[in-house]
Amino acid sequence: MVNQGVVCSVDPRASEAGRSVLAAGGNAVDAAIAAGAVLTVVAPHLCGLGGDLFALVHRPGDQTPASLNASGRAGSGADPEQLRAEGHRDMPFRGDVRSTPVPGCVDGWFTLHDRYGTRPMAELLTPAIELAAEGWPATAMLARAGATLDGVEGAEDLTGLVPGQTVTRARTAAALRAIAADGRDGFYLGDFGRGLIEMGRGLFDGADLEAPQADWAGPLSIDALGHRVWTAAPNSQGYLLLLSLAIADRLDPPADSDQAMWAHYLVEASRQAGHDRPERLSEDADVTDLLASAAERAARIDPERRADLPESHCGGGTTYMAVLDRDGWGVSYIQSNAAGFGTGLFEPRTGIGLQNRGVGFNLTAGHPAEYGPGRRPPHTLVPALVTRGDGSLRLVAGTMGGDSQPQILTQLLSRVLRSGQSVTEAVAAPRWCLHSGPNGFGTWAGPYEFDVELERGSPDAWRRGLADRGHRIADRNAGTFGHAHLIEVDPDGRAGGAADPRAETGTVAVV
Question: Which of 40, 139, 231, 318 is flagged as catalytic?
Answer without folding.
Answer: 318
